[in-house]
Amino acid sequence: MxxxxxxxxxxxxxxxxxxxxxxEEYTKHVQVNKFRLSPHNLNIETGRHNGxxxxxxxxxxxxxxxITTEMHFLLICPNYTNLxxxxxxxxxxxxxxxxxxxxLMTTTSPKTLSNLANYLFHAFETRDPT
Length: 130
Fold this sequence. Notes:
Layout: H1 3-6, H2 14-17, H3 30-37, H4 43-49, H5 70-76, H6 81-87, H7 90-93, H8 98-105, H9 110-127
């Protein structure tokens, strides 16, 4: 990635797990694709659009006083523990790290991608019911 990409706050999470531009298995899963590209309604993204400082983009679904990053939503927020148990291998959720997050987000396993897509679908439905 070039220096402009590395300095972009918008894609800071995305650049953790994407370093080559090529077709990837995850693109078959709309939810995963959307999550990786950031057109979602997590506070980390909506706050950016609304000019809210990053430090104030807190999760409103838990009392951890944490910024609602993609990693928080996927592996940490206690609001989604039951969904995680259903769809995500415990390895990723026990003592979650940036490395585990990167590994999950770069998986090429069709089963893991399908489970991740299901988690994201249900977690977003739980977060923002229509």
